[in-house]
Specification:
The complex is a heterotrimer of chains A (about 250), B (about 180) and C (about 375).
Chain A: H1 26-40, E1 46-50, E2 65-68, H2 74-84, E3 89-95, H3 96-102, H4 104-113, E4 118-123, H5 153-156, H6 162-167, E5 174-179, H7 183-201, E6 207-212, H8 216-219, H9 223-237, E7 241-244
Parallel strand pairs in A: 1-2, 1-3, 3-4, 4-6, 5-6
Antiparallel strand pairs in A: 5-7
Chain B: E1 2-10, H1 15-28, E2 32-37, E3 47-55, E4 69-72, H2 75-81, E5 90-94, E6 108-112, H3 114-121, H4 127-139, H5 144-154, H6 159-176
Helix pairs in contact in B: 1-5, 3-4, 3-6, 4-6, 5-6
Chain C: E1 4-7, H1 8-18, E2 23-26, H2 34-45, E3 49-52, H3 56-68, E4 73-77, H4 79-84, H5 86-94, E5 100-105, H6 121-125, E6 136-138, H7 143-160, E7 164-169, H8 170-174, E8 176-179, E9 208-209, H9 216-236, E10 240-243, E11 251-254, H10 258-272, E12 277-282, E13 284-286, H11 290-297, E14 302-307, H12 313-321, E15 327-331, H13 340-351
Parallel strand pairs in C: 2-3, 2-4, 4-5, 5-7, 6-7, 11-12, 11-14, 14-15
Antiparallel strand pairs in C: 1-8, 6-13, 10-12
The chains are: A alpha/beta (about 250), B alpha/beta (about 180), C alpha/beta (about 375).
Chain lengths: ~250, ~180, ~375
């Protein structure tokens, strides 16, 4: 009987079990990055930069060199690596607390300098690893451990739309937002991530893909309900699509 | 022999520059030298000064509280530093801009019409060179040729400016030696 | 190479280039701006890269990335900026990434002032960042010394895979002195290839630069291994110099950086008056030269520590001499410098048995 492989582990992922909670979409975004690196043949010259947050252990899962950054500083660390070794492919993988809160200065300035790096920004509207605190991306009214009555926009403002914020800068090359809540959107997000790495391979400056993601554990709902919640609550506020390309606006 | 000097004036009069030239000339002659600028708010247009040490032995403190030589290119500098000059030291006063005489009786005072002489040489900007020349002529602490080398290095490629500064320097040297006013 | 007349800040930059450093990440702060300014001009001329970071926090983390990928890299800052770099310093030490950080110290605390001080001694030598770590701390006293020491700093950092600090009061950066940049000199330590760096994992397992070790047993092992490394620095890297200590002396002065030069001038003046005073100058503030200082203090009846602080190194001086003899302290703060006359006055008063004006009372440790 002949065997037909229809699904296999990307070479850029190590054969280990991830620590992520059931229903968490980090596993998907890890895989999308790994597939992109494989398909573009970049793995052996790639250095990833891990954040502080749920994906702090990303370096245990990817089969490429990795640098663990301090909280929020991944774009600065990536800047250092890329400036020292422009021949390497450098990406950061950051959550919303890491990138949009403590690391706001680093991400804005790395983008504005046009660092030739790729940023994978996982937005699940909450702090995961520390136990479900309010993030800059937490939705209005959304309950978190530091806003137990729901996010009050009078006190905490409205969620930050990072893709749009960074698109306001002149320098960055490619900025897009995808979502991981359905197979179709996963496929589309994969295309965005691959395109971001392609730009880096070509030497084009800064690229970022925001991935809307779920956190069933800290949202306190089931994985299936999480996907639905994302679709109903996050999608209207965080519109999907390509925000900025080197060639100009794209529909 | 160790010369410890404070050179002071308005920002823009070029006191830091002539300090550097003195240090450079000293170094060229194999002497030990240090140059230390005042920095901070003074850098932005107010009075400014530098401390230069030219010595036969390694320079200990680059900071000098009581210099044996002081050049004052403007009145505030004279007011500030005159009391600190060591007895029997040298006080060089730019009489073009300073409307008073020295109060100290225990120091050797040299009045130099630096701005007027500089204008006669072709540019009021060269007043600092006149003062530098006067100091070198008076003390002989470094050779005139070494200072000229410093001028040539500073204004490399700008022959006209070099010649102008040479002229101002030489006029200053003559004043320092007492051969001219 | 002939001697050049250079500002300390420029000499530090040029010496770093001569030590094959081609990367600088920094943020403006007085009184060290001449270092990044110089690097921004010079590095592109030698195929290097200068980046003005958005903050000292970012600059130090850029160092972390660049050092992790195997490059020689340094930054400079001044006291408040160095405080912001303490986070990265801890990570650099924890993840064993070699970099060089220069602190041109100004007066503090807080914004303080921009004039020279030595009040960051504790921060540099006793921690500063969190966790159990140590850094070699070099303290130049002249422009030549600064140029020589920063070259060694890169070798020491690479050899130990650890950040190395060089701290100087503002005068070190601001003054001009003749300096010879020792191009093509031999490294001060044998240097191994950086096979641990993140350079792409072609044909090997991934290299990870990391300080996160969640398993307590593993982390304790890591801590102990680091400790053994720090112990070897203490054993092998102590540097110091002494002056006028061949003959007899009643007072031994301990000082580092520019104040040590001021003290040397005082020592020479006293010598002319027939008073012999020794001078001890730590060149590595960590590891501190405890044993050599204790040895040199044996001949003296008292030690006088002179610093531009309210008394920081004096604690190590006391530790060094134990209870052998009294340790006095004289310092100026706020950016005011100690003068040779003040040191002479202090010594004279001590020799006369009187407590000098402005001096901290000496005593047994």
């Amino acid at each position: 009987m002949s065997e037909l492989t229809v699904f296999k582990r990307p070479e850029a992922l190590l054969p280990v079990t991830m620590h992520y909670c059931p229903g968490c979409t980090h596993g998907i975004s890890h895989r999308l990055v790994a597939e992109a690196l494989d398909e573009l043949g970049l793995r052996e010259r790639t250095v990833g930069v891990a954040p502080v947050g749920c994906s702090v252990l990303a370096y245990d899962y990817f089969n490429c060199d990795f640098h663990e950054a301090s909280h929020g500083r991944a774009p600065a660390v990536a800047t250092g690596i890329k400036r020292a070794r422009p021949d390497l492919i450098v990406f950061t993988y950051q959550g919303d607390g890491d990138l949009a809160s403590i690391g706001m200065a680093e991400i804005v300035h790395a983008a504005n300098r046009g660092e030739k790096i790729t940023v994978i920004f996982v937005n699940n509207a909450i702090y995961g690893m520390t136990g479900g605190q309010m993030a800059p991306t937490t939705m209005p009214g959304q309950v978190a451990t530091t806003c137990p009555l729901g996010r009050d926009t009078n006190l905490a403002g409205f969620p930050i739309r990072m893709a749009e914020l960074l698109s306001a800068l002149v320098t960055p090359a490619f900025i897009a937002r995808g979502s991981l809540h359905s197979p179709l959107e996963v496929v589309k997000t994969k295309a965005l991530i691959k395109r971001a790495f392609q730009y880096q391979r070509e030497g084009t400056c800064f690229s970022l893909v925001e991935c809307l993601s779920t956190c069933p554990t800290n949202w306190g709902i089931t994985p299936t309900d999480s996907l639905k919640w994302l679709e109903e609550n996050m999608l209207p506020y965080y519109p999907l699509g390509i925000k900025k390309t080197p060639e100009g606006k794209e529909a | 022999m160790q010369n410890e000097m404070i050179l002071a004036g308005f920002g823009g009069q070029g006191v830091l520059l002539i300090g550097k030239m003195l240090a450079y000339a000293g170094m060229k002659e194999g002497k030990e030298v240090s140059w230390l600028p005042s920095y901070g708010p003074e850098m932005r247009g107010g009075t400014c000064n530098c401390t230069v040490v030219v010595s036969d032995k390694p320079v200990g403190s680059p900071v000098v509280k009581s210099p044996n030589i002081m050049i004052a290119l403007n009145r505030p500098s004279l007011d500030k530093f005159e009391p600190s000059v060591r007895p029997e030291g040298i006080l060089l006063i730019n009489s073009s801009l300073i409307d008073r005489k020295a109060e100290r009786k225990d120091v050797d005072v040299l009045y130099v019409r630096a701005n007027e002489v500089a204008i006669e040489c072709g540019s009021p900007k060269a007043a600092n060179m006149v003062a530098l020349g006067a100091l070198v002529g008076k003390t002989g602490m470094v050779g005139v040729e070494s200072v000229k080398a410093a001028i040539a290095k500073t204004f490399e490629g700008k022959e006209k400016i070099i010649q102008l500064n040479y002229k101002a320097l030489e006029r200053g040297v003559a004043i320092g030696k007492g051969e001219a006013q | 190479m002939a001697k050049l007349l250079m500002k300390g800040a420029e000499a530090i930059g040029e010496a770093a280039i001569a030590a094959d450093c081609r990367l600088f990440f920094g943020y403006p702060i007085t009184p060290q701006n001449e270092i990044p300014e110089y690097m921004s001009l010079r590095l592109p001329q030698v195929g290097g890269t200068f980046v003005q970071a958005e903050s000292e926090v970012a600059a130090s983390n850029m160092l972390y990335g660049a050092g992790g990928s195997g490059a020689r890299v340094f930054t400079s800052s001044s006291s408040p900026g160095i405080s912001l770099m303490m986070e990265a310093l801890s990570y650099l030490a924890g993840a064993e990434v070699p970099v060089v950080i220069v602190n041109i110290m100004r007066a503090g605390p807080g914004l303080g002032g921009i004039l020279p001080a030595q009040a960051d001694y504790f921060q540099a030598t006793k921690g500063g960042g969190h966790g159990d770590y140590r850094c070699i701390v070099l303290a130049p006293w002249s422009v030549q010394d600064a140029a020589d020491l920063i070259m060694d700093a890169f070798d020491l950092a690479d050899f130990y895979r650890n950040p190395v600090l060089m701290i100087g009061d503002a005068l070190i950066a601001q003054m001009m002195e003749p300096v010879e940049i020792r191009e093509g000199r031999k490294p001060c330590k044998p240097l191994a290839p950086k096979d641990w760096a993140t350079t792409g994992n072609k044909g090997r397992k991934p290299n990870i630069i990391n300080s996160l070790i969640l398993d307590p047993e593993d982390l304790e092992r890591h801590n102990r291994r680091l400790k053994a490394k720090f112990d070897s620095m203490e054993r092998d890297e102590v540097r110091w110099a002494s002056y006028n200590t061949d003959g007899d002396y009643d007072i031994l002065i301990a000082a580092y950086g520019t104040p040590a030069r001021v003290c040397l001038t005082a020592v020479n003046e006293l010598k002319e008056k027939g008073v012999n005073v020794g001078l001890f100058r730590p060149i590595t503030l960590w590891p501190f030269p405890y044993a050599p200082l204790r040895e040199k203090a044996k001949k003296a009846k008292a030690v006088l520590t002179v610093e531009l602080s309210t008394g920081q190194m004096v604690e190590d001086v006391r530790t060094a001499v134990c209870e052998d003899l009294p340790v006095h302290f004289y310092g100026r703060q706020g950016g005011i410098l100690v003068t040779p006359d003040e040191v002479v006055e202090q010594v004279t008063a001590l020799l006369g048995g009187a407590r000098p004006k402005g001096a901290r009372k000496g005593g047994k440790a």
